[in-house]
Structures are given as C-alpha cells and as structure tokens.
Amino acid sequence: MIRSAAILGGGVIGAGWAARLIENGVDVTLFDPDSAAERKLSEVLANADRAYAKLTLAARGPKGGHRFAPSVAAACEGADLVVEAVPERLDVKRKVYAEAEAAAPADALFASSTSGILPSDLQAEMARPERLLVAHPFNPVYLLPLVEIVPGARTSPEAVERATALYAWLGMKPLVLRREIEAFVADRLMEALWREALWLVHDDVATTAEIDDAIRFGCGLRWAQMGTFQVFDIAGGEQGMRHFMAQFGPCLKWPWTKLMDTPEMDGALIEKIARQTEEQAAGRSFRELERIRDDNLIAVMQALKVNDWGAGETLAAYEKKLFDQGARKPPEDLSRPIRTMERRVPADWTDYNNHMNEARYLQCFGDATDAFMRIVGADADYIASGLSFFTVETHIRHLGEVKALEPIYAETQLLEGAGKKMRLFHWLRHADGRLLATGEHMLVHVSLETRAACEPAPAVAAKLAEIAALHAALPAPEGAGRAVGQPR
Amino acid sequence: MIRSAAILGGGVIGAGWAARLIENGVDVTLFDPDSAAERKLSEVLANADRAYAKLTLAARGPKGGHRFAPSVAAACEGADLVVEAVPERLDVKRKVYAEAEAAAPADALFASSTSGILPSDLQAEMARPERLLVAHPFNPVYLLPLVEIVPGARTSPEAVERATALYAWLGMKPLVLRREIEAFVADRLMEALWREALWLVHDDVATTAEIDDAIRFGCGLRWAQMGTFQVFDIAGGEQGMRHFMAQFGPCLKWPWTKLMDTPEMDGALIEKIARQTEEQAAGRSFRELERIRDDNLIAVMQALKVNDWGAGETLAAYEKKLFDQGARKPPEDLSRPIRTMERRVPADWTDYNNHMNEARYLQCFGDATDAFMRIVGADADYIASGLSFFTVETHIRHLGEVKALEPIYAETQLLEGAGKKMRLFHWLRHADGRLLATGEHMLVHVSLETRAACEPAPAVAAKLAEIAALHAALPAPEGAGRAVGQPR
Predict the structure, then answer these.
(1) How close, in Å, is residue B353 to chain A by CA atoms?
(2) Model-level pTM?
(3) What residues contact residue A224 under an 8 Å CB cut-off, 6+ apart?
(4) By the CB < 8 Å criterion, does B385 face chain A?
(5) Which of A48, A134, A420, B112 meets the CB 3.0–4.6 Å disulfide criterion with A142?
(6) Are residues A90 and A169 both part of a single domain?
(7) What is the number of domains present in chain B?
(8) With bands split at pLDDT 50, 70 and 90, how would you rate the model's confidence at B251?
(9) Residue A170 lies in a domain
C-alpha cells in the first residue's frame, strides 16, 4: 500500500502512528525537536510490539524501520504519507505544511491528526491543498480502530479514497465525515460526557474513580459494541426508538445535566482531579497502565471477533489480509517436513503452572493440521462445498515447557495419505529449535452433510498422494505409533 | 441471601430484574396490569437463560420460580425484597409504596429502579422510610453489572449495607452514591453524550449509524475497561492528568459541543432518528438485537475476566461464589469413575466444521484432570507450595460431535497412581449419555522450582493410593493403551 511515512511530532499521537505504521511494514522517519522523543518512541514501540504479539495469531510481514530526521523537510523527503501530529495551533500547522510541501513528493498524502481544527483552514495556504485531509485517530493509535477522515473544501475525492483504503489496510475503521465541524464527531461526544464528569467532581457528587466505575461497569460495556442510538433503540422494547424518545425525551429538558455552563478549570479543580486519578492508578506507572489498557482492548476486540461484530469485524478483516498475504508466499519444498504454524504464545494461553496449557498444544497441532489441509487444497472454499477432514485420534507427547510470548513453530510430516485417511505427525518447537511436543493425528475425510466418511475430491486426493510419495522417503519420526505410557 | 422478591412493573427493567433474580435462585412474584406482561416476561427469561448458559461455566443452583399476582399487595406478601419498576412519576410511585408497605413484611427491603427521582422524595410518605433506597440498574439488567445505590435522607445505613451485599451476591457492582442528585451519576453522563448526539443528527452532521460507529470503534472500547478520567490520565503521557488538563482544558470553552441548548424533540427529529436506527437494525427484530448485544456483553466481560479487570473482576467474583457453593457438595463415591467436569459447550468453542474444536476436547480433559488433582489434594494451595503434576503424554479418540451450548460431562478412572506417576482415563459424554471422546493421560509429579520430577507430598500420595486401590477393581477401559491408527 505505502512504503514510507514521515511523522511530524512524536508525542502520544505521533508515536502511536509510528507504531501502527511500523508494525504494518512501513518505514517511518520522525521529526520532533524534543530531546526525549527517541526514548519516548522506543517505549511506545515496545508496548506496541507487546500488543501486536497478542493481537493476532496471523503471521505478519517484516516490520518497518524507523529513524529520526533533523528537520521537517528531511523527514518528508521521499515519503508516501506525511502524518502531522504537532500541537493544536493553526499557525504552527500551516508553517509545518509549508516546509513539508517543499520537500515531500508531489503525490504524498497529507494527513493531519488534529482533534478539532477544520481541514479547510489547515489546507488554505497549501500549494496542493487537494491532498490534505484530517485523519483523526484515538489513543492508543496502534490499537484503537477508529479514525475520522474529514475532507476540507478543497480536498480531492481521490485523496479521501486513498486515505480510506490506507487506513483499512492498517487495520483501522475509517469513518468518513460528510460535513466539516469543529471537533468532528467522536470528540464532541467525549467532551460532552467529560464536561458533565468534571461538574460531578467539582460539586463533590462523586470521585473520579466512582465516575469511571459508573462508566466501565455500565454504559462503557454497552458502547464497546453498540452506540448510544442502537442501545436506546433496544431499550425502547418492542416499539423501539419511537417509544424510547417519547418516554425519555422530556428528561432532556429536566435539570439532569449541567448543560448551561462549564466548570472553571482553576488550580483547585485541576489538583482535585489529578489527586483522585493518581489514587486510581494505585502506584502503577503510566506505562504499566498503558499495558493494562492494551491487554484489555485486545481482549475486548478478540472477544467481539468471535461474534463477528463491531471492532471484532475490523480485526477479522485485518487478520484476513495478513493470512492472505501469508498465503501468497511461494509454495514450500514439499519433500521435507512442512512448516505449518508459526506464532508467539499468547499471554492468556498460560495456566496456573505458568506455562502454555496442555490444551493449547493441541490447538497448535489443530492449526498446523488446518494449514496442512489448505496445502492439499482442503481450504475454506472446499469446506464451504461440504467436504472436510475430522480428527478421530490424537497422541501427544509433552516434552518441554514454553512461556507466554515465546516464539514457536510447527513442522508436519504426512505418515499416511490415501483413500479417506490422512495421518499426520507434527513437531512443535521453540524458535530456538528446542522440541516442545510431538502430535500424531489420524484424520478421516467426511461429508459435512452426512457427517460420514467419504472419498476426498480428486484434486485433494492427488495432492495428498503427491506429498505422501515424497514423505515416504523420510525416516519414520521418533515417537510415532506410541501408546500412552509405553516403554521407549 | 434472600428467597423471594416482589417485582412491581414488568417492563424492560422490571422483567430484567426478574430474570437476574430467578437465575440466582430467588422466587419472584410480579405485578403488572399490562395484559402482555406474561408474554414479555417469558421472552426476557428465554434470552436471560440463553445468556447465563454462556456467561459462566460454574454450576449454578436451581433457578427461582415466578408467578404473577393480581395486585401490588398480593405480590408483596412475604417478600424479602420489593423491587419497584413502575413509570417515572412520583405520585404513581408513592401510591405503589403505600400499597406495598401494607402487605410486605416489616423488614422487607424496598428498592426503586428510578432513573432519576430522588430517594428522599420517594420515601417521604412511607411508614418505614429507612428501608427504601434507589437501586438503579442498566439494561440488560440480567447482564450489566452496574447498579447505583442511592440512599435518601432517611435511609438507614443498615439498608445500604444489606443492599450492597445483596447486589454483589447477584453478581453486580454496587456503586453507592454519597450525595443525592437528580439522575444520579451514570445517566447524567449518558444524557450529556446523548444530547450532543441528537444535535449531530439534527444538524445532519452524521447519521445515527455513523455516530454509533464513532462510539463503538473508539471511546466505547476504552470505556468498557477504564472510565474517562483514567483514559485521559494515560493520554496525558508521562505527566498524566495535569498535562492533559493543561492541554485540553481550554477546548472546553471552544464551541466544540452544543452545550447551551437541547434540540427540539419535534416530530421531524423523532422520525429522522427512528428511521435511521431502523436502518441500523437491518431487518433484525428487537429480540434478535438483544441476543447479539447479550453475546457481545458476555464476550467482553469474559475477555476482561482473563485480565482480572473491571467487569471481568466482578464476573470472576460471582463465579467464585458459584464454585464455592458447588465445592460444598459432599464428596463422591470414589469406588466408581468420578464425575470431574460438567458444563455447556461455550459458543466460541466451535470451529469452521460447526462443532466443538478438537483442542477443546483436550481442554475438557485438562479441566477434568485439574478436578481429579483437587480430589487427591493437589489443589491451589498445593500448587502455591511449589508442587504440581505435569501432563507428559496424551491419547484422545474423537468419537462423536457436539455443538455449541450442548451439555457435556466427564468421568475419570485412575489407571495408575504410584510414585511420581499418575495415569488417568477420561470419558467425555453428552448429557444424554452419548460418548464423545476418551482421553488417556500420563502425568508426572514435579517440583515447580526445579521443573523436575519428584515424589508427591505424603497426603497426596496416600489419597492417590486409596483411589488406585479402589479403581484397580474396575474393568480396564475400552481404548486404553491404544496408539494412533492401531487396529481395534
């Protein structure tokens, strides 16, 4: 999609963009005059690395590189994408665009991370304003899918199209706004809630921790998967939204929120809120809290992926892209055991013994079996056509322990592949070569309609026969044919 | 905790309370003059049943019963808890309390579900006002953990204490407010966001679907696990909340939200919103949408449980209570194969073949092994002391398919239990008796410090020997000692 990006500004947002781009194979050049920028970026990249190891089991391509440039112009040379994430001042941003345009390729896309300045104002003094738009992300940028795409009056439809494709490719959910409005959509919603929350703290109705609990044990759980309108539509019962609005519409006129004013952000209020949020942190550092937040976001998105809904659907689409990329690799040498699985051990695969749980060994072998099935042509289309292989018997030797986030892989030898039968032998190894387990599996080819055994389709049978002939020349694996507890 | 509850009002909230109470073994008597109340309740109970089957794998006690009463008084007779969920009119609620107090036991707790009326106003005319408080839940009441507990001026501390214990026992997160305020805390936050969202639709900035996406792909994911303050504290970077407020505080004064007014809820706006939310539903019925929402909420809470955070912590505490209840069962007859596992197949345990994935068979056997370990005394304390059993070899025969939500159980026979070795044979069956799989497992007793084999503690060795002697009299299981692909 793109190969290189300039990132102007290395704060929370700029560093977050850098992490997302690098994790997706884009080379990043960053400019930030802050002397701590390199340290901060390396901390964000470490957290992002940790997060991506958990986010998806799909094999990812090589990461992009990163370097720092001494100026805006130096950062922008040769960049396919210019990401602006400098402070929220129109004059500062316009100055940065002038320097960037002088150095960047004529067709580079310009994306501002502004939270609220109108793109028409941002592009007003640009030489090529048609290529600028707002791409407003949300912290943590490397994990949260939402990005608001806001074109200005002079932005070209082609730039919007390029941006939409680019951010989807980066695993995001681009929301293209049809109308320019200060603060766009998401921040307006957040700010409305935030202002009310400030009043509640100001008036000592509740502490920051209590307000946060009111969110994360209630509406926050709902909003992770449906927005306020769909939630209320369901709450309206059988008559839906019309009933809900008839019932609760009048409350809007009641003094239920402090809608007429904002609290004075004086020193006393700032101190109160800062003190209360420090208490919530309970001594955890900001990077620790980031990791907790990231683990939770990943878990929530993975949970929604199971239901193919909302942010889970976005994650699934991203993974599909990664799997497809992996599938485009040239076919392997089929005369040796075939590499069928490669991943890091997800953190939640470990158990009370602090190592990968025994069931996950079989999950690895199951995934290796699936990959082998794809190699012989028993892929998603084949299964959709009503044919598949079912495992009928399994033997596992657990030979070594492996811990969370360690890299592992599987190799597979076909012991038998004729008629309805397919017998596989998998080795599961640590990336350092250490043997962790072996798995021997008898599969039977079935019709998904009758759930009974049947012959594979000719193409699958032929591919199986081809690999079986090649693997017949390999030595029989040590441990094949064993029963549990049998002497060596 | 309590045995019976009266529920006054069978709308979305009253029926939701009924479902949560019934799922937790409380008998419910409901009064609602609506002729459709029985049908509506049965639909809510069906959705709640479905949800609880997925929510937790812990065995639950018997469900409570339910019946309808012809009057408020008849519903309240003998009730430990009176749940008021009638329309939001102070006069209506006061009238209901008068009738309820005349019939209910003197020590029954009164809990109003009001979204915003002050408890001091609710209790003003009561004979025993000290027992009334607001317990404000959130839809779906049977799943969302948050309940705002708001005492009135005359509510006794003892009533607050009883309510807090009761709702925690029901698996909820009681948030006790220290100050009475109209609409309490959570609804004020939701209403502030909702008002802003209404303006965005009114002004055609965005559709309801776009606004919902701005929530569920962004801030909603964050708010499922941390509230607005902790999120912004982290967004502040190294200097935390103080930096965040210095940077974004001024925006509050900018025209970023429509803070000065609410839109006129006229027919045109109501129609526009109703039409747009209908489009979002894409032809799904309201009960279908409820099930999608419930599946997502369950998945999110279960995901957070893995991280022991927020709503996941609440779910874990609820499950621990259920497990503890189950653990109080008298020990089983050890001379026969021992029932070691019982559950429904979680929906996300199924794969592209639309049946329980092969790895989950080993998870079932692993859980059965864990249960057997607890029976011989190798429990959590034993493991914390540095000793455990590791599985070294496994043989599985997959003999039958099982689908999502079907009930299954495991029984276990000890084939060998002496010295460092423990060899187990598990049968996995459908509740209808159908054999789904067998598992044979060799385990070795280990020191968690050296990760090497060692002798079990004397008590564990003795219990193992006792069961080994009893099980030696049982016939050898069919399939024990098999290797993969071996002829029968």
Answers:
(1) 8
(2) 0.79
(3) A300, A304, A310, A311, B216, B220, B221, B223, B224, B296, B300
(4) no
(5) A48
(6) yes
(7) 3
(8) low
(9) yes
For the domain that residue B213 is a member of, what is the CATH number? 1.10.1040.10
pLDDT tens figures, B74-118:
999 999 999 999 999 999 999 999 999 999 999 999 999 999 899
For residues A50 and A87, membership in a common domain is answered with: yes
Domain CATH for B152 = 3.40.50.720
Under the banding of pLDDT at 50, 70 and 90, the label for residue B249 is: low
Identity of the residue in A222, A277, A361 whose CB atom sits nearest the CB atom of B241: A277
Token pair of B130 as six digits = 């000290």
> Which residues of A are less than 8 Å from B256 in CB distance?
116, 182-183, 187-188, 191
- Say yes or no: B438 and B340 in one domain: yes
The per-residue pLDDT for B267 is: 73
Closest CA to B11 of B52, B46, B43: B43
Whether residue B483 lies within 8 A of chain A, CB to CB, comes out as: yes
Q: Which of B362, B415, B450, B486 to mutate to test the interface with A (most CBs of A within 10 A)?
A: B362
pLDDT of residue A99: 98
Counting every residue written for chain B, the total comes to: 488
Asked if B243 reaches chain A (Cβ–Cβ under 8 Å), the answer is no
Count the Cβ atoms, other than its own, within 10 Å of residue B485: 17
The verdict on A360 touching B (C-beta cutoff 8 Å) is yes
As beta bridge partners, residue B83 has B7, B111
Q: Taking CA atoms, what residue in B is nearest to A260?
A: B260
CB nearest B227 (choices: A213, A441, A482): A213
Which segments of A206-335 are extended strands (E)?
Answer: none
What is the distance in angstroms between the Cα of B209 and the nearest Cα belonging to chain A? 8
- Per CB-CB distance under 8 Å, the chain B contacts of A114 are none
SS3 B195: helix
* Same domain for A180 and A53: yes
pLDDT at B477 over 80: yes
Structure tokens at A241: 């939204």
A487 within some domain: no
Q: Do the chains contact at A214 and B175, CB–CB below 8 Å?
A: yes
Q: How far is A106 from chain B (nearest CA, A)?
A: 32
**Does residue B308 sit at the A interface (CB-CB below 8 Å)?**
no
User: Tens digit of pLDDT for each residue in B457-471?
Assistant: 999 999 999 999 999
Nearest CA among B183, B12, B6, B184 for reference residue B109: B6
Q: Do B483 and A485 touch (CB under 8 A)?
A: no
Q: Which residues in chain A are contacts of B419 at CB distance < 8 A?
A: none
Mutate to test the interface with B, among A113, A180, A234, A447 (most CBs of B within 10 A): A234
Decide: A182 and B256 in contact? Cβ < 8 Å.
yes
pLDDT in tens, A171-181: 999 999 999 98
Domain-terminating residue out of A159, A184, A209: A184
Give the C-alpha separation, A210 to B311, whole Å. Answer: 14
Are residue A172 and residue A197 in the same domain, yes or no? no
In this prediction, the answer to ipTM > 0.90 reads no
Contact list in B for residue A361 (CB cut-off 8 A) is 362
pLDDT band at B235 (very low <50, low <70, confident <90, very high): confident
How remote is the C-alpha of A76 from its chain's centroid?
27
The verdict on residue A229 lying in a domain is yes
CATH number (domain holding residue B364): 3.10.129.10
| pLDDT confidence of residue A252 | 58
pLDDT in tens, B428-445: 999 999 999 999 999 999
Do A173 and A192 fall into the same domain? Answer: no
In a domain, B365, yes or no: yes
Give the range of the structural domain holding residue B109, as residue numbers without chain letter. Answer: 4-184
**Cα angle vertex B161, ends B158, B165, to 5°?**
145
Q: Number of residue pairs across A and B with CB atoms under 8 Å?
A: 542
**Do A247 and A165 sit in the same domain of this protein?**
no
Flag if A216 and B223 touch (Cβ within 8 Å). yes
Are B183 and A251 in contact (CB < 8 Å)? yes
* pLDDT score of B330 more than 60: no
Please give the Cα distance from A82 to A102 (Å, whole number).
12
Range 6-65 of B in CB contact (< 8 A) with A? 11-12, 40
| Residue A125 and residue A155 in one domain | yes
